[in-house]
Amino acid sequence: MNFPRLALNNKIIVVVIAVLLTLLGLNVFLTAPRKEDPQFTIRDAWVVTVWPGATAKQVEELVADPIEDALAGIEAIRRIDTTSYVNYSVSQITLQDQYSDASAVWDKVRRELTLVEPNLPAGCMSPILDDHASQAAVFMLGIYQD
Fold it and tell me: What pTM value is reported for the model?
């Protein structure tokens, strides 16, 4: 089938289709919802715990594991990824997608962290929850041609 020949032989049909597509596109453009600063929920946070002078194995066994066990009881948490280093551990917490009020979940996490804090070894600093790490998101795309 030769589409260019078909289009040349049926100019009226091509014009009608083009006008309909233009009107449909204009309708979508005028009725689409838009915001200058759209709201979106950040579902990731990090818990950082510092224990100066401890080995990575000690940090894992005595700091990271109790924190993971305490946070495992919160049903809104989808995944906890913890990495233990010498002197500190970092846990990334990811929430399930159906939870849109992340601040309420982060409050539960803070309460659990205050409950587990007395059980951490001596010299270990209080766990720090960083739930504001991704508040400023910027995507810049530049297209350049010489």
Answer: 0.65
Interval 27-67: pLDDT, tens:
998 998 877 766 777 889 999 999 999 999 999 999 999 99
Distance CA(100)–CA(93), nearest Å, equals 15
Cα(9)–Cα(145) distance, integer angstroms: 38
Give the 3-state secondary structure of residue 49: strand
Report the side by side order of strands in the sheet with 44-50: 77-85, 88-95, 44-50, 128-130
Both tokens of residue 17?
Answer: 């289709």
CA atoms within 13 A on the CB side of 127: 32
Q: How long a stretch of residues is the chain?
A: 146
